[in-house]
Amino acid sequence: MAVQKELSPGIVVLSAVVGGISVTSGALLTVTSLFGYAAGAWVSPEALSPGLIGAAMAGVAPALFTIGRARLWEDVRSLVLPLVIVLAGLFTVSLLNGGSLQAAEGGPLFLALFSLGWVAVLGLLALGAVGCLVAQYRRPAGPAGGAPRQPVVPLPAWSKPPLAVVGSGWFGIGAGLLAFPDFWGALVPWTVNRADAQGLGVWALALGVGVLGALAEDDLTRIRPALRAVPLVALATAVVLAVHFRSVDWTSGPGVSLLALVTGLFTTGVSGRWLLSRADRRSAALPDTPLAAVPGSARAAVPDSVPEPPLAAAPDARPSRADDDA
């Protein structure tokens, strides 16, 4: 089992900055999309795609503000690693599709300036995210995280197959849209261009990594920030899809798959928070008992130390020849 590490201040600052930017930019993209306007950094054929990107940004922002409450890196990495993927991925997509930016297409002045700021800010955040991530993994284990920790509230066995299906679905769709946007973009149940397909692919890939990462952690206490983000992202996505209901081909296979994945994402977040809240309530009912010792947790049945048998119980505890001579 890997040794735990303390959370670096750089990760905390990065998450707070990204959270603030995500709230404002995500709200702009989402609200304009709800009113039928495509206000993204690049030109889109429909308002749905930038609205979905904005909904994901706004949905994850509240969870980013809670990362500073954590003490260990292992307690937040299920959210930070997808965050780094989003920042680096959206910056790369913006550069690869530079000809589709609002500034390059001669869009309205506000959107042209927004697209330039989008690329500049994403570049700085992506660079900072990669740097903070490298510094975090090079950080030595501190006194608080020097010992490995057993899972405190493990995932129920019944939840692991659905988690694997949901995570693999989002991961596969995201990888396909990123690597082969022309092929996979044609399967999206509404009209998208290359930049839309890859931008949506970045978020789908990050969601898949987050869900599969939670499955790998196998401890609800270590995915607490991610559990705050997942249902909000799913709910915001559902609102945008509901407003643009007529733009989506719901009778197609991709439309049905999208509905199933969004529903699975929301169910994953809600059920995970419910299980964690139940464990917290049990811990609160026993104020002098740590969560690891609460009945039902993984460590409740594992004693910290096994007492050694007394000397009298040893079968060969007989006087030695030296004692007889004395």
Mean pLDDT: 87
Rg measurement, Å: 25 Å
Q: What global shape is seen?
A: globular
Please identify the structural class as seen in this structure. Answer: mainly alpha
Taking pLDDT < 50 over at least 5 consecutive residues as the criterion, the unreliable ranges are 292-296, 298-315, 322-326
Taking the alpha carbons of the first and last residues, their distance comes to: 51 Å
Question: Which labels suit this protein?
Answer:
single chain; mainly alpha; 11 helices
Explain briefly what this protein structure is.
This protein is mainly α. The chain contains 11 helices and no strands. Helices cover 63% and strands 0% of the residues.
Descriptive report:
With 326 residues, the chain is an all-alpha fold. The chain is 63% helix and 0% strand.
Task: Explain the layout of strands and helices.
Blueprint: H1 9-34, H2 48-64, H3 77-96, H4 102-105, H5 109-138, H6 160-179, H7 181-185, H8 194-217, H9 224-243, H10 253-285, H11 321-325
Helix pairs in contact: 1-2, 1-5, 2-8, 2-9, 3-5, 3-8, 6-8, 6-10, 9-10
